[in-house]
Specification:
By secondary structure, the protein is an alpha+beta fold. 37% of the residues lie in helices and 21% in strands. The strands form nine sheets. An eight-stranded mixed β-sheet has the order 20-21-22-19-18-25-26-27, with helices on both faces. A five-stranded mixed β-sheet has the order 3-2-1-6-17. It is globular and about 65 Å long. 50% of the residues are buried.
Length: 532
């Protein structure tokens, strides 16, 4: 039997999964560890490379012990990772500063200075925009894009900038640590908006680097997601408990591999991901862009295929916020119960299961309460780092349970909004694969079906689809599986949810109000939240 070690590098945690490769890909076991996300007062969002590495070592060692898999049986290592981070390293592949997360939004001034004066569109200088669109079918229009993080370091930390050897993303840093090789895969390169994606090009753009003032020497060589980046080095192998010389693959970002792990691989297939962040993604043949809605056709792992991608910054993070601040802080279900045998937690696998049960008892529409899920600004269908969450229409008879359900409905309203924006440019699928932590709840899955009006399918390994996609790259690269497109037949559907027509009217009414809330409060958000 051959095995793959696949690592899913999320915003707040890492999961290592061992997959067995035979006639199909089978999850053997997984191990999870958490790390910190540091939110700074100036809009920064950072992480720590040593925390990533400690989580990786801990999970790998525990999984080896738990499964009994021999290091000699592991044929490859691969990653599915959060994207659009900035990890700056020296020649020894050591991080020069804490990585800047995709959520980092401190570089607004650098973005404005680089754009200069003149006519703008979507906040971008028109001349720069046209040059970028011609080469990438997209543009760096968000302050959270890695280009502006790079420019921020250039302007504010010159002593660090002068030491840069390479600019890497999250998984690229871990690959460099494992192998000593600094590479970047096309999907990560494209996410910098410095990658020329035109047919016959597929390389770093000298013109865009010159336009934005980026030193091309800082950009690593580009390899395919399914290519071997290098071999596992002795010291790192000893720390992990794996075999030196094991192949380490180029791998892919979460926006690239979660769809593959969900089995959404054919043209026109649409999937929804609900993790810390959330998105809607549809497989397309030609690149498309909607600057007004901040949606683009991004480069993925499949050749001649692109992913029409719409993202929201906080999805599951909203429900985590609810757990921490509306449930634990006040109800204290877990903190005060001492008699475990007779306590609420004895009846439910997790607090989230209990919250799902509570939500299921609330009528659709949450008694008129509407929640906006913009806890860390928003990207699509509008870019605004000042946008924030709110509970709207609370009355004297509003209960906490209605507020809990309103959070789930608010996330689903926003997903519908992005889905409708995608439909303006491409045809999304009538049946949608729903994956990530949110899909584990039957209540959430049904609400999503009701609000979007689409048939929703969940899959067997809903929380491990990213690792599944990473493992498939190794399976293809090692010759065990013919092509990535085979993922569709290898991923099993767990449940199907169809829209309940009885709930259509109340959700249509709520959705109309939901979309108005940003327009009506945009100026208020700016007054309260704009950086001085």
């Amino acid at each position: 039997m051959k095995y793959v070690a696949a690592y899913d590098i999320g915003t707040t945690g890492l999961k290592c999964c061992f997959f067995a490769i035979d006639k199909e890909l089978r999850l053997v076991a997984g191990q999870y560890a958490t790390y910190n996300l540091y939110i700074l007062d100036n809009g920064g969002a950072e992480q720590d490379t040593e925390e990533w590495w400690a989580a990786m070592v801990d999970c790998t060692q525990k999984l080896l012990e738990k499964t009994g898999v021999s290091p000699e049986e592991i044929v490859g290592i691969s990653f599915c990772s959060q994207m659009q981070g900035l990890v700056l390293v020296d020649k020894e592949c050591n991080a020069l500063r804490r990585p800047m997360s995709y959520m980092d939004q401190r570089a607004g001034e650098e973005m404005r200075k680089t754009q200069g004066c003149g006519i703008t569109c979507a906040g971008v200088n028109v001349g720069m925009l046209l040059k970028s669109l011609r080469r990438t079918h997209a543009a760096s229009t968000s302050v959270k894009d890695p280009l502006w993080k790079y420019k921020w370091v250039q302007q504010n930390e010159p002593e660090i900038y002068d030491k840069i050897y390479k600019w890497l993303d999250v998984k690229e840093y871990l690959i460099a640590r494992l192998t000593g090789e600094c590479i970047m895969t096309p999907d990560s390169a494209y996410a910098t908006f410095l990658y020329d994606s035109r047919a016959g090009k597929n390389c770093w753009s000298k013109e865009l680097c010159s336009m934005y003032g980026v030193n091309m020497e800082h950009l690593p060589r580009i390899i395919g997601c399914g290519e071997v980046a290098g071999k596992l080095r002795d010291q790192q192998a000893a720390e992990l408990g794996l075999l030196p010389g094991t192949d380490v693959y180029g791998s892919g970002g979460d926006a690239t591999l979660i769809g593959i792990g969900a089995g959404s691989t054919q043209l026109g297939d649409t999937h929804i991901y609900w993790g810390t962040s959330g998105w809607i993604e549809t497989v397309i043949k030609k690149q498309a862009v909607d600057l007004g809605a901040m949606i683009g056709g991004i480069v993925g792992a499949q050749t001649c295929r692109y992913n029409y991608f719409a993202e929201m910054e906080t999805a599951g993070k909203c429900f985590e916020w609810v757990k921490d601040h509306l449930v634990l802080d006040e109800i204290n279900i877990y903190l005060e119960k001492k008699d475990v045998e007779h306590s609420i937690e004895a009846k439910y696998i997790s607090l989230y299961d209990y919250m799902s049960r509570v939500i299921s008892e609330v009528s659709p529409g949450s008694g008129g309460v509407i929640f906006t899920p913009w806890l860390h600004g928003n990207r699509c269908p509008f870019e605004d780092p000042n946008a924030a969450g709110m509970f709207f229409n609370i009355k004297i008879d509003t209960h906490k349970r209605e507020m809990l359900r309103a959070v789930i409905e608010g996330i689903c309203y926003h997903l519908r909004w992005m889905l409708e924006c995608e439909d303006k440019k491409v045809k999304t699928s009538d049946t949608i694969r729903f994956v990530g932590g949110g899909s584990l709840s039957e209540v959430t899955s049904q609400i999503l079906a009701d609000i979007t009006g689409r048939k929703i399918e969940t899959v067997e390994q809903a929380k491990d689809v990213g690792a599944m996609g990473a493992a498939l790259l190794v399976a293809v690269g090692s010759g065990c599986v013919n092509c990535i497109g085979d993922a569709g037949r290898m991923v099993k559907v767990k449940a199907v949810y169809t829209p309940n027509p009885d709930n259509k009217e109340v959700y249509e009414r709520g959705y109309r109000v939901f979309k108005r809330l940003y327009k009506n409060n945009k100026k208020n958000y700016q007054i309260l939240n704009a950086k001085k």
